[in-house]
Amino acid sequence: MEEDNGTEPWHRSLQAMLDALNQTLHGAILRPSTLHNASTRASRDDNAYLYILFVMTLFAATVGSLILGYTRSRKVDKRSDPYHVYIKNRVSMI
């Protein structure tokens, strides 16, 4: 009754790939020869996360200062605004 639709080899290869990824994520090393390369690379890239954090902090400070500068400039009442001049003249007439 059950038909084979040809997905069994695909499923097996996908499962093998997921198992290998799971072993890699949990710290199991598949090939012992990559142990030396991994330790060399890890020592070279130890401070990569600090660089990323530094760049993100600079970006956040830049964007924050732009937002604060824009919002504060919009709140300032300008004395030369025609609406304020009209209100001032109108109130003085009353």
Automatic annotation (TrEMBL):
Membrane topology per record: Single-pass membrane protein
TM segment ranges: 48-70
Pfam family, any one: ISK_Channel
Record-level GO cellular component terms: voltage-gated potassium channel complex
Gene Ontology molecular function: delayed rectifier potassium channel activity; potassium channel regulator activity; transmembrane transporter binding; voltage-gated potassium channel activity involved in ventricular cardiac muscle cell action potential repolarization
Single biological process term from Gene Ontology: regulation of heart rate by cardiac conduction
InterPro entries linked: K_chnl_KCNE
Keywords (A to Z) from UniProt: Membrane, Transmembrane, Transmembrane helix
Subcellular location(s) per record: Membrane
First and last residue of the signal peptide: none
Similarity section: Belongs to the potassium channel KCNE family.
Protein name (record): Potassium voltage-gated channel subfamily E regulatory subunit 3
